[in-house]
Amino acid sequence: VDISSQISVEEICNSTTIAFANTSGFTGVWTFGDGTGSSTANSGNYTYAGFGNFTVTFTADADCVLPVSLEATPAPDNFAVTAPDVIGCEPAASLNATINQPGTIIWTDLAGNPVANPAAVPAGTYIAIATDLAGLCTDTDTTTVTLQDSVDISGQISNAQACNSTTVIFENTSGYGGTWDFGDNTTSTLDSVGHIYTGPGFYPVTFISNESCVLPFATVVTVTEDVFTIAAPDVTVCEPVASLSATTSLPGTVVWTDIFGNPVDPISVSAGVYIATATDVSGLCTAVDTVTVTSIFVGVTAEVTGKDTLCLNESTTLLAMPVGNATVYTYSWSPDETLVGANTPTPTATPNGPQTYTVTVTGDGLCTATASVEVFFMETQCRDPYIFVPKAFTPNGDGNNDYFRVRGTDITELYFIVYDRWGEEMYRTEDPVHTGWDGTFRGRAVTPDSYGWYLKVRCGDGQYFENKGNVTLLK
Question: Does residue 285 sit in helix, strand or coil?
Fold first, then answer.
């Protein structure tokens, strides 16, 4: 019978005494390996004369029970725990302690309350309680935790991509030394360093200071292959001054000068050529663009080039003359109901009465100007002399004054007869636009003489006019 699992010896902490135990149910004899001591008790303590290594044997009284031998090594070792004071950084610090023999450690505050998380404690005093593996020895030590303010240096850490390359400039101006980790398995301890990445991408970068209580810095650097450029558009305005603008493909600053290099205020410049010079935030890249400012001054005058005073159904010509440096001009006359060519500089006007015409001229589709002209209208009334009958005519075929007719600008109805001195009718018409009497009667020319006439008309305003008189036919 093997009873070795029910036989045990255990050294007592910092002592020459050991504890022995037999839980097998078999009685027997203990010998303690020092040549002098023995015992028949199932359990108890045995004290050696000194420290050393001893073989302890238990021999059962029963047959067929195997003897058991164990080693006992009582030693003078002092079981101790050491918990150093801690100077940490806000907001918390970590407790630590060491023991000179295997064992366990628990932490409490001064009131004996267990510390929930020894890895993150506020400032204060704490107790480390250590117990050896046998559970026979304990020791304690006290530690004081002091926390200092943490230093944030993120405002003194910067990076900027160099112009048109994969080089990134890293700067630490905090005054605290440390180590850069560039996120591509490379590091540097320089405060200012230009790091070259193998290609575009996103890289997690950290800076860890060598000093206590300096917070670590972390960021993600985006490396691109963008080209730094500037675009400054040309400007065309109607006013004598203009405002300049420019955009850059990457963050940077823009400085404006004239072509001679003199600084200018981009908010208010006159016509001319200007240069925009851009510099990126790293100061390593510049780009240049040129801007031309054109100021269009537009004016216009208008006049009547035909008759400025018209009768009904008569027409005249208007003229618009732009003044300025535009390349293309467009025209718009109004009102346009009585105009032909209202979108040209020279429309024809046929007004129904006195009329003011206004022209709007636009230069290069941007700048406008206006001018006006007035067309006068001949007064018409339903009476003499506005209804006119000549005193004589010469029907000799020379094309001049060959017909005797009624003239008027506003005749809507007409009754007109011509008769000789004996009252015989020579000519009659009711046509307001008649050609007139040609001095013949029944196809033959009449003799030169004085002939009477009678007239009755109705005008456009509804009034009637009657008249009679004599006309002399001359050859």
Answer: coil
The DSSP string of 424-436 is: -EEEEE--TT---
What is the identity of the amino acid at 179? Answer: T
Q: Which two tokens stand for residue 336?
A: 């346009």
Collapsing DSSP states into helix, strand and coil, what is residue 388? strand
Strands (DSSP E) found in 48-89: 54-60, 68-72, 81-82, 86-89
Six token digits for residue 101: 């023999």
Q: Is the distance from CB of 364 to CB of 317 less than 8 angstroms?
A: no
Instruction: Please tell me whether the overall predicted TM-score, pTM, comes out greater than 0.85 for this model.
Output: no
Q: Residue 346 in 3-state DSSP? A: coil
Q: What is the DSSP letter of 155?
A: G
Report the candidate in 409, 314, 329 with the shortest Cα–Cα distance to residue 361: 329
> In sequence order, which residues have a C-beta less than 8 Å from that of residue 462 and are 6 or more positions away?
none
Residue 226: pLDDT above 80?
A: no
Query: What is the C-alpha separation between 244 and 230, in angstroms, rounded?
Result: 13
The backbone torsions φ and ψ at residue 154, rounded to the nearest 5 degrees and listed phi first, read: -60, -30
Entry field: residues in the chain: 475
